[in-house]
Amino acid sequence: MIRDGIDVSQYQGIIDWETVKRYVDFVIIRAGYGQDIPGQDDPLFKRNADECTRLGIPFGVYLYSYAQ
Hints:
The chain is built from two helices and three strands. By secondary structure, it is an alpha/beta fold. The relative contact order is 0.28.
């Protein structure tokens, strides 16, 4: 079974989630990067997660890492 999903972060800007819902089965949302400090949180994470929740779009989250 193939599912269509997208990976989003602040770099996609303000997303029209009503439109996106018609084309995707799931979303992966970046929560931030680097360390767990406020300056590295994705500023659109909460909005993106809230919109997916509101519209019933399944989503997962990730923290971009610089681990070696």
